[in-house]
Design a protein that fits this description.
14 helices; 36% helix; 18 strands; single chain; 5-stranded antiparallel β-sheet; alpha/beta; 6-stranded mixed β-sheet
Length: 475
């Protein structure tokens, strides 16, 4: 059993030191932001990761940076109450200075040192510092405490596990996992506004990507200057306009200079036109399709919705590839046997609803080994796909019904509606990538938060590294 023991006022001496280390994760930020009543806790990454402490910083950046520094301040309190002096300590005050940004992914070493002892009134003054992995002080200051006079030794309290259904926990775990992999060199196509440029740099600071900015250099630099973003050390490949930027980014993939694409300030059609060019594009044997990943509060798993962005009304061959792409995505992030639900309005096959015929055909293709890697069932209505109670009420016998990981919609409209309803009504966090090309493509939207862009980069990064172990044919 892990025990902690205090040091009474009589046992303390000037110069005594206690330390701890911890890595700041997105989950830490989300939890701390929630406790601090930040109304948008999952969007804190941009400010915390990138905002220097400088005169003139915006209020939003100041708030987010304050959250990161506040987290660091709690590490000091943790040492005071658990190590030096330890249990029985009463904090009287802290005076802290915030010297440098605290970035997500940084390993923070916290140190407190006994500076002065007043045995007469039992108070102790301690010098406090939080250092990043480079040894630079990010927080420094002084704490004053009332030291314990009675010896205490007790078991260390264990924190309750965060439930898997809690908001953001699965995406936080995905980003942490992706951080362990080498950054994915990503061509950012026409990043000529603060949203696309800032999102790319935030993904870089999270360790997801190494960005290569492709577009008009003057416009990119002007956007960076207007948003207060530092492009030092970032490669820029000049291209005169958005069409040329898309073509140049695709060429970088062919040259081995990029392993993924991220959409900037241009229309999706412009980017996909270059990607799908029959002679110079990034086509494979697979149909290109989009997969939404949704971290829905109250659910015990990530839900994937496809295709809600590219294929308007897929035929059987296109739908089969949509299913294959989604299965590959979920296996890549660690779902061993994905459960795939082909959605319709009913769970019976009828010629009056073409979507039920397509679903039945996909299931038979799976039975015959034409689609592999998961379990597939359909047609299933939405409730039958995700609700065990609905499945029990209707007497459906299925390995997929009630527990689907992947929701395959019959057309773009229904897929888009389901995804947007989960985001805006159920509070789901979202991310997504397009698969079926030679490299993953992050088709970000102007409405995407920085957090969504980071998670999309994490999806692309994990998929890319998983895909390297498999043949490229995707057939």
């Amino acid at each position: 059993m892990d025990m902690i023991e205090n040091r009474t006022i009589d046992e303390l001496a000037v110069g005594d030191v206690a330390e701890s280390e911890r890595v700041l994760t997105r989950q830490d930020m989300a939890l701390f932001a929630t406790a601090a009543a930040d109304v948008n806790p999952l969007d804190v990454g941009r400010g915390a990761a990138n905002s220097p402490v400088e005169e003139g910083a915006g209020d939003t950046d100041g708030l987010h940076q304050g959250i990161a520094h506040g987290w660091a301040g709690t590490l000091i309190s943790s040492i005071l109450l658990s190590k030096l002096p330890g249990p029985g300590t009463t904090q009287l005050g802290q005076t802290l200075r915030f010297l440098k940004p605290v970035r997500i992914g940084e390993r923070i070493r916290t140190r407190v040192t006994v500076a002065a002892i007043d045995a007469g009134n039992g108070t102790v003054r301690l010098e406090c510092a939080c250092l990043n992995q480079a040894g630079e002080a990010v927080v420094s200051g002084v704490a004053e405490v009332l030291a314990p006079v009675r010896k205490i030794r007790r078991a260390r309290a264990s924190l309750p596990a965060r439930p898997k259904s809690a908001h953001g926990v699965r995406f936080a775990a995905l980003v942490d996992r992706a951080r362990e992999l080498d950054p994915l060199i990503t061509a950012i196509v026409h990043p000529c506004d603060d949203l696309s440029l800032g999102g790319a740099l935030a993904a870089r600071d999270e360790g997801m990507i190494t960005p290569v900015l492709v577009g008009p250099a003057a416009k990119i630099e002007a956007a960076a200057k207007g948003a207060g973003l530092d492009l030092t050390g970032v490669e820029i490949v000049d291209a005169p306009h958005s069409h040329a930027a898309a073509e140049t980014a695709v060429a970088l993939v062919h040259e081995g200079r990029a392993g993924a694409l991220m959409k900037g300030k241009l229309h999706t059609d412009e980017l996909l036109m270059a990607v799908l060019d029959k002679t110079r594009g990034l086509r494979t044997e697979r149909r290109l399709s989009h997969v939404f990943a949704l971290d829905v509060p109250g659910q015990d798993r990530t839900l994937f919705v496809t295709d809600a962005a590219i294929n308007i009304s897929p035929d059987l061959d296109a739908l089969a590839d949509i299913v294959r792409n989604a299965i590959d995505m979920t296996i890549a992030i660690g779902v061993e046997v994905p459960k795939v639900a082909l959605l319709s309005a009913v769970e019976t096959v009828t010629g009056k609803l073409p979507s039920t015929l397509l679903a039945a055909a996909i299931c038979k293709m799976h039975d015959r080994g034409q689609i592999t890697g998961g379990k597939i069932d359909g047609p299933l209505a939405f409730d039958n796909a995700i609700s065990p109670a609905a499945v029990a009420a209707k007497g459906i016998v299925s390995d997929v019904a009630g527990h689907a990981d992947i929701l395959v919609t019959p057309n773009l409209e229904s897929g888009n509606m389901i995804a947007k309803q989960l985001i805006h009504l159920a509070g789901a966090s979202s991310a997504g990538i397009a698969l079926g090309a030679r490299v993953p493509i992050m088709l970000t939207s102007r409405s995407d938060t920085v957090d969504a862009r980071i998670v999309s980069a994490a999806l692309a990064k994990v998929f890319y590294h998983w895909r390297r172990l498999r043949p490229l044919g995707l057939g």
